[in-house]
Amino acid sequence: MLLQNWWFTTLVGIKRPIQPPLKGDVKCDVLVIGGGASGLAAAARFLGTGKKVVLLERNICGGSSTGKSAGFLTPDSELELSQLRRRFGPQGAKDLWEVPVRGVDLMLSLIRSNGLECDLQKQDSLYLGKGSGGAKAVREEYASRKSLGYESEVYFGDDVRSVVGGKGYTAAVRYQDTYGIDGLRYAQETKRVLVDGGVDVYEASAVVSFEGHTAKTHMGSVTADEVIFCADKLGPEVSPYSWNVYHEQTFLSITEPLSPVEQQSMFPAGPFQCWDSDLVYSYYRLTGSKRLLLGGGSLLTTYTRNDSTTSRVIDHVISGFRGMFPELRNLRFVQYWMGRIDMTRDLLPTVLKEPASPWVHRVLGCVGLPWATFCGDFVAREVLAEKETGDEKYYGYFDVNRKFLVPLWLERAIGKRLAFPINNAWAKYYQKDTRD
Ligand SMILES: Cc1cc2nc3c(=O)[nH]c(=O)nc-3n(C[C@H](O)[C@H](O)[C@H](O)COP(=O)(O)OP(=O)(O)OC[C@H]3O[C@@H](n4cnc5c(N)ncnc54)[C@H](O)[C@@H]3O)c2cc1C
Fold it and tell me: Atom 4 of ligand 1 has which residue's CA nearest to it?
């Protein structure tokens, strides 16, 4: 298996060139830093407003998490609805679930209204339970969806095989209005829309320092009235909030195209995007070219400091998959890659306006493309003073000073690598801060 991001392969033949790096000093109304899902959504919100907008991207747009992702567009990234409900109560769960739901809608509308070529696939979501614990989790998810008014279907025991051919699943909950995309093409195509709409996009332009209203790159600078940071993995030299995030590692692989018989045996009722109830879960879906994307990780490598680049982890995920789908055991996996997702201690994003410099906005730790898209758009609406009724509450949910199980003073003693998994697991499985 070759170590290479499959989506880079899909860039071959792209019609638009890479944007040149910034050279010289420029001024603008709004500077967006980072060209992933969040930064692109922020910049897109200014189209047609008459604002002069500059976007600076260290790599190419989509060159970090967005362009490495599996491209599941589903509200569920790391937190199930039932987990949000336990933690925040019914109203809080609904408030928060609407974030990625609106994120999916925003992405879809950008894709459809601009004809973005990004391998958009309509695929229902299927959350799969394994063992009795998994069946319980599915039951809870279904109950939460029902009680909060979200439609879904549930399957138990042998019925699960009517939708997914694997053995060993004990239950599944299925819901609609979810999609798959090629995240890198999405980012590059969105860049095209931004450039056509008058946004100055500079790729290969990492911000190396920031002071007042001015961001400096190696070859230039941008001075802006408003600055929106949507960049990942920033160090303290550019972000006083780098303590707020850590980077979880996950792995992906892709196969040769599946034959119609293999597709049918895997998905008897048509393609789904699937993930299971394991703590470090596996996830899979078919691309438009009928290749199987399979992702997962391991407890040991999720929070490691150094990237793990061998195929050891993904080999293990593949072997687990082959065990569950013996009829697909001859499928050939051709490429694998890994990426790191910025996340906060409780897996919810942080969105803030710096108190001492309220023209500086920060979007941090978005786990999931729809969450990132919502947050980028949300901050841009704030800048445009286009807030909708009820928007203000999100500054509360996404407050940088919210409480976590392992407090900062203890985290400093034991280190992020230990504190983050504890806080993540606590937020996912136990935390309760009901507001209802
Ligand atoms: C392997 C993998 C699989 C995933 N699968 C899914 C999935 O199926 N569905 C899903 O919803 N989510 C998935 N995710 C998570 C998802 O990709 C992220 O949550 C999402 O892309 C975050 O978007 P973002 O814009 O916040 O960050 P990013 O996409 O990381 O964008 C930040 C951008 O900032 C740029 N940048 C960083 N520093 C600077 C600087 N100094 N100056 C200028 N620019 C800078 C980076 O180059 C980058 O392009 C996956 C992630 C990975 C790694």
Answer: 69
Q: Is the Cβ atom of 339 under 6 angstroms away from ligand 1? A: yes
State the average pLDDT over residues 36-41.
Answer: 98
- Nearest residue (CA) to ligand 1, atom 10: 368
Dihedral sign from CA coordinates of 201, 376, 304, 5: negative
Identify the residue whose C-alpha is closest to ligand 1 atom 28.
36
- Asked which of 343, 365, 394 is the last residue of a domain, the reply is 343
With both helix axes pointing from N to C terminus, report the angle between 183-196 and 81-114 in degrees, rounded to the nearest 10: 50
Same domain as 278, residue 166: yes
Residue 344 Cβ < 6 Å to ligand 1: no
Q: What is the pTM of this model?
A: 0.97
CATH number at residue 314: 3.30.9.10
Within a domain: residue 14? yes
Angstrom CA distances, 83 to 169, 228, 240, 256, 421, stand at 21, 30, 30, 36, 16
Q: Is the CB of 222 under 6 A from ligand 1?
A: no
Return the residue whose CA atom lies nearest to atom 33 of ligand 1. Answer: 34
Three-state SS for 89?
Answer: helix
In terms of residue numbers, what domain contains 149?
Answer: 124-177+246-343
Specify the ligand 1 atom closest to the Cα of 283.
8
For the chain, the distance separating the N- and C-terminal CA atoms, rounded to the nearest angstrom, is 51
User: Which pLDDT score, from 0 to 100, does residue 307 have?
Assistant: 85
- Is residue 35 in contact with ligand 1, taking CB distance under 6 Å? yes
What percent of the chain clears pLDDT 70, i.e. is strictly above it?
A: 99
52 and 133 share one domain: no
